[in-house]
Amino acid sequence: MGAHPLEIVPDTTGADGLRVLIEASPDGFLVHDVAGRILDVNARFCRDLGYSRAELIGLTVDEISCGRSPAANARLWAAAVPGTAVTVSQIAVRKDRTTYPAEVRLTCQMVAGRKLFMAFARGLGRPLPPRIGALELSARERAREAQSVYGTLRAVMDSADDVIAFQDRLGRCLMLNRSAEALAGLPRGEILGRNAIEIFGDAIGARLREKEEAVLSTGACSVTEEVFPVDGGERIFLITRSPHRNERDEIDGLVSIARDVTDLRERARLAEARLKQANLSLEEEKLALSQRTAELGRQAGEDALTGIANRRRFDEALERACLHAARTRQPLALAMIDVDFFKLYNDRYGHVQGDAALRRVADILAGAVRRPYDLAARYGGEEFVLLLPGTDQPRRVLEDIATELARARLPHAASPVSPFVTMSCGCVVVADPAAVASADIIGESDKALYRAKQEGRDRIVVTRF
């Protein structure tokens, strides 16, 4: 919405009314010439910098700021075209030499043949403006100052992008700028003397009047968002309402300044949507990474040839099983299984067929593992292990494995004990795992396997330890 001249009713009090609006602004205001000399300021600007108005008049912009170099400021002012505006970032310097960041909306105008600059300065992160009280200047001083800067103030209002209006205690509009006319969609003559309901209709007007009445009754400023129909669409305006007090400190009206924040809200919405999408993508990446980590962990504990647990996973499982058995005082069984005469099998049938035979044996062992804490693993070469926590009678399980292997009828013409692949098994049952180290359990199981081989292979030997 473009900037338009301020309309004042009645014109004879225009200068005073304009001064009221400038003093009611939530932002600091100043006027300076092309050399940077400060010609006028409002009370907000004085409070922000800690100076009195008399102290600021005559100083230069370079003396109260340090965000831009004097040379950069001089180039900006020299190149500025009257009627144009620009927003710059500055670092304001207070009287006590502390600083704060500020956003400055700078407008260039030709006033009485002079190139002047009107600036609204907003301190970033500054709290909402305090309640507007009576002007500090006396009536005579205010009148004299208003007369001297009347042209300047009119130029400022001409360049304002915001909607500005002044209303009496009944909500009737007494003063407005052209931006306010454009928002209402009515000429000035149809707005002056009417309230929000008469201007905007019942739906919007009732909400506006409710908020206006709250400010007039409490004397406290308010900042709200309202949605207005504009050019066939909807625009969001941030409205700052401040009560105006007369010389007797009585609230006699209301100053409203409305800023179109639709684009800002849309950018915020898009930024939030992008953030949500980024978070979603991050969650997806985290899930994929977690799945990949789990897969790598599984692969790290899996035998590449047979697909059952490998030696590393078996060692970890045995340690956990021993600790658990020691705490619960339960027995533990460990069987070591060796494919009989497997070297002769490889020599006769080749390594490819040998690998297939090992996979078949591994499948049989995996099928015998029925409880979640049981484990079948390839120990190395043609040796396998079967871990059975909480078991003191493992023979039946081991015999079922031998029977299943016999049913497989894997030919082994080179075996001295059978025409088919067989196995030897040595198993140890530990009644009190708390008194035995895991290495000793493996050793005892290996001794039982050795006995099975010594006694002719294709058999099961179970010992207790």
Can you lay out the helices and strands and say which pair or pack?
Blueprint: E1 6-8, H1 14-24, E2 28-33, E3 38-41, H2 43-49, H3 53-56, H4 70-79, E4 85-93, E5 99-111, E6 114-123, H5 139-148, H6 150-159, E7 163-168, E8 173-177, H7 178-184, H8 196-200, H9 202-218, E9 222-230, E10 233-245, E11 251-260, H10 262-300, H11 311-328, E12 332-339, H12 342-349, H13 351-368, E13 375-380, E14 383-389, H14 395-408, E15 423-430, H15 438-454, E16 460-464
Parallel strand pairs: 15-16
Antiparallel strand pairs: 1-8, 2-3, 2-6, 4-5, 5-6, 7-8, 7-11, 9-10, 10-11, 12-14, 12-15, 13-14
Structural class: alpha+beta
CATH topology of the domain at 311-464: Alpha-Beta Plaits
Gyration radius over CA: 45 Å
Mean pLDDT: 86
Placed side by side, the strands forming the largest sheet appear as 1-8-7-11-10-9
The percent range for strand residues is 25-35%
Oligomer: single chain
In the CATH hierarchy, the architecture of the domain at 311-464 is 2-Layer Sandwich
CATH level 4 superfamily of the domain at 311-464 = Reverse transcriptase/Diguanylate cyclase domain
What is the global morphology?
Answer: rod-shaped
CATH class of the domain at 311-464: Alpha Beta
Number of helices: 15
Low-confidence parts:
1-13, 125-137
What is the first-to-last residue Cα distance? Answer: 93 Å
